[in-house]
Design brief:
single chain, 261 residues, alpha+beta, Arc Repressor Mutant, subunit A, 2 domains, 9 helices, 8 strands, 51% helix
């Protein structure tokens, strides 16, 4: 009986989600609509439609136009759409930025975003000196063992960062930093230094350096990195690369609407 009750509760929740989406689609199609019309379109009682609208309104997804007035799409939808559009714009704009920098430096350039505790590469370009043909686009990489990942990890809210660092961190090479205190100290220097360099932390013989890409409000939305073999991308060359890498990331940030003071 308990399993049956659980299935019924789950089915009811799914139905509520489906109805809520139908409300949003209805308002998007018809514009301002009253609760009676919404209930009729959904085939539900007005009280059910009212509860759905109340929840959507509390999240800013719909708004009531005047007291007991009609409903319309809320600005919360704009926020959600903006986040999706921003990612698409970043991937599109990032391709050109990656290619220009890769041609200039001769190394592989990537752009990565944070997603559910990992970094996901959304753009890549290989320079003339790149020796690997591996395409990292779409690949998930660890936050704690990559230069891009550390930039993204450093930008997370402190509570989220601590939560991720409490997990068991995989040691990919003898150089991978897995001690939470040591890693936290390194992340705390990111703001001051403006970049993160990783030397053979994910793969032996591979070095990388990354800097943040910022959105309109100055928030870190992605990381741009340059990677290459350790014999060519020495620590000295990494320091030389930081400036052109930072300039490229700032240019992309400006295209996304961020302008440094």
């Amino acid at each position: 009986m308990r399993n049956q009750g659980s299935r019924n509760a789950t089915g009811s929740q799914v139905q509520s989600v489906d109805r809520a989406i139908s409300v949003l689609e209805l308002l998007a199609r018809n514009g301002e609509t009253g609760i009676t019309e919404i209930a009729g379109e959904l085939g539900v009682h007005k009280s059910t439609a009212s509860r759905l609208l109340s929840v959507l309104e509390s999240r800013g997804l719909v708004e009531q136009l005047g007291e007991r007035g009609k409903y319309a799409i809320g600005f919360g939808i704009v926020r959600l759409a903006g986040a999706a559009t921003g990612r698409m714009d970043l991937a599109k704009l990032g391709r050109a930025s990656c290619q220009t920098l890769a041609e200039s430096l001769g190394e592989t350039v990537n752009i990565a975003i944070a997603d559910d505790g990992v970094a996901i590469n959304i753009s890549q370009a290989r320079g003339s000196a790149a020796i690997t043909t591996q395409n990292w686009t779409g690949q998930r990489t660890p936050l704690h063992a990559t230069s891009s990942g550390k930039v993204l990890l450093a930008a997370l809210p402190e509570t989220e960062r601590k939560r991720l660092l409490r997990r068991k961190l995989e040691q990919y090479t003898p150089r991978t930093v897995v001690d939470p205190e040591e890693l936290t100290a390194e992340l705390d220097r990111v703001t001051e230094d403006g970049y993160v360099a990783c030397y053979e932390e994910l793969e032996l013989g591979m070095h990388a350096v990354a800097v943040p890409i910022r959105g309109p409000g100055g928030e870190v939305v992605a990381a741009m990195s340059v990677s290459g073999p350790s014999y060519r991308l020495s620590k000295q060359r990494v320091r030389q690369i930081v400036r052109p890498l930072t300039d490229a990331a700032m240019d992309l940030s400006a295209q996304l609407g961020y302008f440094a003071e």
